[in-house]
Design a protein that fits this description.
single chain, de novo design (two linked rop proteins), Rossmann fold, 8-stranded mixed sheet
Length: 417
């Protein structure tokens, strides 16, 4: 799907931002007017125009709040938060660029201002993790304060009274997202259906990479185990119904966690990722990938030169390798590829025992073919949903069709209760 831009990376990121409009994270006209001002393939133009829009929309929120129009303020702040996130997206060629922290912090601040006026419970929490903490948001299902008859999606089982602990969905993002973005991506949909929801950022993500400077780790269960400890300790949570969803690269991370952490009762891979190295290396000839796979460090400069040439030709490659070196803690493209080789389900996928849902976009350009590989390798109870081009949902993580994606995800989860 192409939207405004011919450049695939710019088009997809615009679609990603526009797609959140269904749940209040954007306004279509604001997004399109911003996109039309951006110079194709120009990272600086992308930043300046999205930042300009975000500043303007934040002012709308400030004006509404000063007049005590709290709903209008909440809506404006939520959009501004997403626009700041979008503005910051292509800045990562220079991780020390001060605009990264400034713009990301603006996104956080706007989100928290919006959260002050959410029509449901919201808590910002810090979860202990290896001598530090990782940030999380806990959203309590609004159902205990409502009449269950208002829930039209599905009649709640009689065992789920308004005072009962609730099924809870734990969600994390992947290669490049933030937990604030998850609110419009899946949290609202979860709350509408009576689920508690906890989002978090782990190593390589959000605040943890930007301020704590902790890069990704392949053994993601070490991150998820303390998250599940925290969730189970809450009275609002039904510990027999804790689901985990990983988005994008999170499709690998969540699967890895579910293979080890047996308190997870259902796992959603949005989308399925079997091997991260495979995604980076698939477009390079075998003689080059053999240098990486055999760790021939004397020829690492050959790999670096080839990838740097690719980065000069393709906007998507330019961003992916620059961002990847930052969040994986790699000093060069060669080192990045070596690090990604640890991110494979090959030796753990048969250990997943919980109900698992694998999502796939039929035109996914990030991990093509990998969801099917994940699904075919699973030996646990499993389901596989393919999103089609005719549905407008064929892209990576179905960002242009979030309503449809959430319908299928939560109908599947409902069926497990």
């Amino acid at each position: 799907m192409k939207l405004v831009f011919s450049d695939p990376a710019f088009s997809f990121q615009l679609l990603r931002t526009v797609g959140s409009s269904y749940y209040g994270g954007a306004d279509i006209g604001e997004c399109l007017s911003t996109a039309y001002r951006i110079k194709e393939g120009d990272f600086e133009s992308w930043y300046s125009e999205w930042f300009r829009t975000a500043d303007r929309v934040k002012k709308l929120g400030n004006d509404s709040l000063s007049s005590e129009h709290n709903v209008s303020a909440r809506q404006a702040y939520l959009r501004a938060s997403n626009y700041y996130r979008t503005a910051e997206f292509f800045l990562h060629e220079n991780p020390s660029d001060p605009r990264i922290i400034e713009t990301w912090q603006n996104s956080i601040d706007c989100f928290l201002k919006a959260a002050e006026h959410f029509p449901h419970s919201f808590e910002s929490v810090e979860i202990p993790y290896e001598g530090t903490t990782i940030p999380a948001y806990f959203y309590k299902s609004p159902l205990p304060e409502q009449d269950n008859k208002n829930i039209k999606n599905k009649d709640l089982p009689s065992s789920l009274s308004s005072s009962s602990p609730r099924p809870t969905l734990v969600v994390h993002t992947g290669f490049d997202g933030t937990q604030e973005e998850l609110y419009s991506q899946c949290v609202v949909a979860a709350l509408q259906r009576g689920y508690n929801c906890l989002t978090f950022e782990g190593p390589g993500q959000g605040r943890v990479i930007r301020k704590q400077r902790i890069p990704f780790r392949y053994d993601w269960e070490k991150v998820v185990i303390p998250i599940i400890d925290y969730v189970i300790g809450r009275n609002e949570v039904d510990s027999d119904h804790i689901s985990l969803m990983g988005i994008s690269l999170g499709g690998y991370l969540a699967a890895r966690a579910a293979a080890i952490e047996k308190r997870i009762t259902a796992c959603i891979l949005n989308d399925g990722v079997f091997d991260v190295y495979m995604a980076f290396a698939r477009n390079y000839p075998k003689p080059l990938t053999e240098i990486v796979e055999q760790n021939i460090t004397s020829k690492s400069e050959v790999i670096d030169a080839v990838i740097e040439t690719t980065m000069g030709l393709l906007t998507g490659a330019r961003w992916a390798y620059a961002h990847g070196m930052w969040v994986f803690g790699a000093a060069s493209p060669f080192e990045l590829l070596r690090k990604t080789m640890d991110y494979t389900l090959k030796d753990v996928i048969d250990k997943i025992e919980c109900q698992t849902l694998v999502l796939e976009g039929e035109r996914d350009d990030s991990f093509p073919g990998q969801p099917e590989l994940v699904y075919n390798s699973l030996i646990c109870p499993k389901s596989h949903f393919v999103f089609r081009e005719e549905e407008g949902a064929e892209d990576h993580c179905h960002v242009g069709a979030l309503s449809l994606a959430n319908q299928r995800i939560f109908d599947w989860l409902d069926g497990l209760l």
